[in-house]
Design a protein that fits this description.
By secondary structure, this protein is mainly beta. It has helices spanning 35-38, 54-62; strands at residues 26-27, 71-78, 85-92, 95-105, 108-118, 123-131, 137-144, 158-164, 168-174, 190-197, 200-206, 228-237, 245-253, 257-271, 282-296, 309-318, 323-329, 333-342, 347-357, 362-372, 383-384.
């Protein structure tokens, strides 16, 4: 007689396969005003002016706010026949300036030749820079093309040498001829030394108030502390605009003014509902905040505390690739600016600025329009998954 086997009363059910979470789309807009626009002539500027968060603070406190009381039009065009050449120009009721530029390589903006024309303070100048990205060594020069001698020696021509790497930079500039009757000066017109160790940076810059002439041409203004600037700073974060960062710096200017500044760049994401697709992707926002406090120190310190110090704070918010709003507040004035950008080819930017003077009770406005043919909107990614 056979043995019968019965089935178990209960069998475990197979586990359901884990469901993949849907990928969230993240829109990453390009910067409204990219740093390369301001960095096109950085080789003509002492590196001391480009460290310690100064370029970012200048953009935050000055861009668009300088249009108050005026209407300004700007243009940036690339030459179709030669992509190495371009033309930039700005025009306002106070005057205008234009720059014709040629650079040797499309990926090396630090080697170039340009001609600058400025009508507000009549200037016609030839400028050039040669820089080796391999060795970090460069030379630069700026010479006027008009024949009239300027009262300022540096307007008659400046030449210089520089070295730059990620953690060290030094250089010096000279005025070749103080006047038609004087020999070249052996005293530098300017010099700088800056270095970085981890997040800490420190530097010194020699920037004389005036070049020695006449009876004082054999003096050494390099010994005068009022011809020197010193700075230290601490920064955290990446230089990429897609990452948050902050910088705190302390400067002593000409031994008479102490300036403390703080700058922070934030990257935030918010949901943005798209009615046409019923999607809710996240969009990246850029938020910047800056604070600057300046006070007088030393023997030249005034007795009136009202004239002893000044401060200003500013912030801007880029909500997407088309919209930027900025605000600035100081002891006597408050400012607000709104800018709109279209990403066609070429790019169009329209801005309006308003400044309220609290002491006078008046409000001034400014308007600007800018056309940019140098940036290529098709090459900048706006969407990530």
């Amino acid at each position: 007689m056979g043995i019968s086997r019965s089935k178990p009363a209960w069998e475990p059910e197979p586990l359901p396969e884990p469901k993949e979470e849907p990928k969230v789309k993240v829109v990453v807009p390009p910067l409204f005003d990219p740093p390369p626009t301001a960095a096109r002539t950085r080789m003509l500027v002492p590196e001391h002016e480009l460290w310690f968060g100064k370029p970012w603070l200048h953009r935050l406190f000055e861009d668009y706010f300088d249009l108050v009381g005026s209407v300004q039009a700007g243009l940036m065009l690339k030459m179709l026949e030669d992509p190495h050449a371009d033309l930039t120009a700005t025009v306002s009721p106070a005057g205008g300036k234009a720059q014709i530029r040629w650079q040797s390589g499309l990926d090396n903006p630090d080697s170039f030749v340009d001609i600058l024309v400025w009508t507000s303070k009549p200037t016609l100048k030839l400028r050039s820079s040669i820089y080796s990205t391999t060795y970090g060594v460069g030379a630069f020069a700026a010479f006027p093309l008009d024949l009239e001698k300027s009262a300022r020696p540096e307007d008659n021509g400046v030449v210089g040498l520089r070295y730059g790497s990620q953690n060290l930079s030094f250089g010096a500039s000279f005025v070749p001829f103080l006047s038609s009757s004087e020999p070249p000066s052996v005293v530098p017109y300017g010099a700088w030394l800056v270095g970085r160790l981890g997040g800490f940076s420190a530097g010194a810059q020699y920037k004389p108030l005036s070049t020695p002439t006449g009876e004082n041409k054999h003096s050494l203004p390099i010994e005068d502390l009022k011809n020197w600037d010193y700075a230290i700073s601490y920064d955290v974060g990446s230089a990429s605009p897609l990452s948050p960062s902050f910088n705190f710096s302390l400067e002593l200017l000409r031994s008479t003014q102490l300036v403390a500044s703080f700058y922070q760049h934030q990257v935030a994401q918010r949901e943005d509902k798209w009615p046409e697709t019923n999607d809710a992707p996240k969009i990246t926002n850029y938020i910047d905040f800056g604070l600057e406090l300046a006070t007088t120190v030393g023997k030249d310190k005034p007795t009136d505390d009202a004239d002893n110090s000044s401060f200003q704070i500013a912030a801007n918010w880029q909500a997407n690739k088309n919209f930027l709003v900025k605000g600035k507040l100081g002891p006597s004035k408050s400012s607000v600016a709104l800018a709109l950008k279209s990403w066609w080819k070429p790019l169009f930017t329209f801005s309006v600025t308003a400044v309220n003077d609290h002491s006078k009770g008046t409000t001034a406005y400014g308007f600007g329009i800018h056309v940019d043919d140098l940036r290529n909107p098709d090459s900048e990614s706006h969407l990530q998954s």
